[in-house]
Design brief:
di-copper center containing domain from catechol oxidase; 2 strands; single chain; mainly alpha; binds copper (II) ion; disordered C terminus; 7 helices
Length: about 230
Amino acid sequence: GPNDPLRVRRPAHLVAADAEYVRKYEAGVRMMRDLDASGDPRSFKSQAAIHEAYCNFHYKVTAAASRTPEIDFDVHFSSIFAPWHRMYIYFFERIIGELIGDSTFALPYWNWDAPDGMMLPPIFNNASSPLYDANRDQAHVTAVMDLNKGPGAENDLPLCTDDACVKENNLSVIYRQMAVDTALQFHGNKFCAGGTPGSPGSLENAAHTAVHIWVGETWGCSEPPGP
Ligand SMILES: [Cu+2]
């Protein structure tokens, strides 16, 4: 409710030092995984299915009045990206808070824009934790990440042979995605029924998509888009 304390999200590589917090986070995710996968909308599977529903071109939209051709409805590749994912994470966080009985619970965030956060946060690489996923690229789970792997990869950054250089390049990628000239360039184009599909903004297209690729997904969903 409006009188509850503010939930404060902290960098995931720093919460590792807070054993009580990690215990609560793991307990909440374990409870989500243990809920009835198809019968309880709060279950980890159900929540994953919500993202899938709006990610792999399951829905089409058309402007009925003008009978324009159908286009895929997707919460990526347009300015819908930021508000939709913000909503999605908000409810994911609320579900955990409810399950563990702590209305102040806040998810951690991956602080990949700071040099110390430029690898998979170690709390996600503990095989006995519910935060673990064996499908992640095992060559990357303890390595400094390369944020210049997204569709908008920059081709003028130095080729690196050491981690310090990779981190410098990552800071350049982050700077360029943040320091764009217009809101459209940052958030992406508007998505309109009857129009052409939107195009992604720098927020989505640079470091964010690079992280998906780094962790082991070519796309942000379980499947690449169909033909
Ligand atoms: Cu997504």
